[in-house]
Amino acid sequence: MAGMIWAMLYASCFPADVHVTIEVDNKTALKLTVGEYRSKEHKALARVLNLLYEEFCRRGSMVCKHVRAHRGQPWNEMADCIAKRMSRHPPPDPPGELVQLLSYERGREWAWDVSPSNPDRHAYPPMGASGFEFH
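Above: the chain sequence. Below: its structure as tokens.
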């Protein structure tokens, strides 16, 4: 699911008139993305996936489709390789000072989201004490 989020965030860097196809070998992640499945275990992550997907659907600029795994599709093979490496050699934890700096005033990170001057603030889920609040 994280790979889908990263792919959609990367695709958001392109102008709206650029058509993007995201090919996925995980049917569950794909169905969570398009809203066909619900996840109790990863509810917030699945909701973020679905919100990103819905935004791209409104723009009419993205399609997600299933591809078979391990069939030589270069980007899919690269994603599998990265996932395998990260499962065997996870990155080290960031230094404590960095963690403290990034988490110190978390609400400030999203201050732009709730600013009365942001005309798009209705497009974002509200922030609660522990993060986004999905209803």
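The CA atoms of residues 33 and 51 lie 8 Å apart.
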